[in-house]
Amino acid sequence: MFKKLCIKAFQAINLTVGATSLVAIAVGAIAVFGGAGLFSLEKAGVKTIPDKRIQQTLYLGMGSTLLGGVGFVSASFAAACVASIVSDADLDDEEESLTSSNTNSVVFKPSSSVLTEDNNDLLYLYQILQIKGCSHLETKLIVGRVEEKVSRKVVIYNFLDSQQKDSLMEIFDVDFDEDKLIGKAFSSLKSNPWDAICEFVDFYRPQLEFKSSYEEFSSFNLEICAGCCNFHGANKIVCGMHPYGWDDTCTCPDWQSDNHRKRVYFPFEREETIEQLNQSIEINQATLMKNDDGSLTLWDDYTNRRFHFSWAGILLYDSDKLVELGEHAQLLSYIQYFCVRAVIEFDYSSKIDEFAQQLKGIATVEINDTGINVRVNHCPKFNIKIERQYRFRFDGIPLYPYESIVPQELKHNYNLVTFVEWLKGNKTRVRR
Question: Distance (Å, rounded) from C-alpha 276 to C-alpha 280?
C-alpha cells in the first residue's frame, strides 16, 4: 500500500513537472521568435525597444526553451520508469491479492519470493493448479502448496514446463489431456515446489521408461511398481520378477522397497494401505476410496452417507461426520466404527399412525411402495407456503441425506426419528 501511495505521489509530481516544462518551452519559443522579430525590425531601421531589452528577451527565451526541453525529457523518462514499476506492482497485486473472497483469504506467491527450507519431519501436499482471473497465471499450469496463516492461505507455486506436464499426464494416466491434470496431488518432503515436482517425476521415471518400452502393458498401475527394488538394468526399467509389469489392481506380492529410491508418504496415501483398510470394513457395507486431489472418501453404502478425509487421515472441515464419534475424530476412528458396526433394521411402517398423531397440524405422514414420506407446507426462509416432501426408507434412513431441504440442525444426524422430533420442537416455524 505504501509503495502504491509513493508511486501515485511521484506520478503527480512528474505530471506537474512535465506540464510546467511544456509551458516553459512554449513561453521560451514565443520569446525567441518575438525577440528575433524585433531584432530584424531593428536591423531594418524600425525602432521598437532598446537593443539591450531585445537581447535579454532572446536570452530568456532560449534559456526557458532549454530548461523546458530538459524538464520534458526528464519527465518522459521518469514516466516510462514509473510505468514499468506500476506494471510490476499491478502484477504483484494480481498474484498476491488474488482471493476467493474480498478478504484476501488466499494469496499466490512464486517460490522465488519466499524463503523455503526443507524439514525432514514435515510432509507437504502439492497440487496441480490453474488459476482463473489472473492474466499472469490463468494460461499456465502451476504446482503449488498451501501454507495456513492466521487470517489467510498462502499458495507457494512454480510453473510447470512441457516435459513435466507430459510426465505427469503419464503418471496420472489422464490420456494426455492437460486439463485433467488440474487438481491432481502428490506428497513431498521438499518445501520448494520446483524441487518437489522434479523429485516426484524422477521417482516414477523408471516405471515411465518401462511403460514406454512395453507399450502392450501401458495400462499397468505405476503406483504399484514405484519404489520397488526388483527393477534392474542400466536404467532400472525392467522388473526381474514380472518382466511385463504387474497389471493387476491389487498390490504386487513381490514388491520390495528400494531404500535408495524411498519416498515418504502420508499415512493413507498408498493404494495398498487403502486396500488393507477396505478388507476390514467392506463386510459392513463401507468403502474407502483414494482421490487424486489429496483426499479420501469413506462411503457408508448402507445409509448413502459419505465422509471426506485428507491423506493424513484428518476429517475435512466441510465433511459430513458421525456425531457419536465426536467433532475431531480421525479416519482410524471411523474405520474402527465401521469394522464393528451392526446394522439393525427396524420397520417404521408400523408406527405411521403414531407419527401422524404426533405431527397433527404440522405435517402429513404417508406410506407408499418405496417408503415413508413426510410432507410440510411452509418455507421459513421466505415466509411462504411451499409443499416439501421428505422421503425415507421403511427403516427410517433418508433416501437423499444431502438434500438442500434438510434442516441444518440435523445435518449430521438426519433420519426419520430425528426429523419427527425436530418437527415437533419447531412446530411454531413449520405449519401445515
Answer: 7
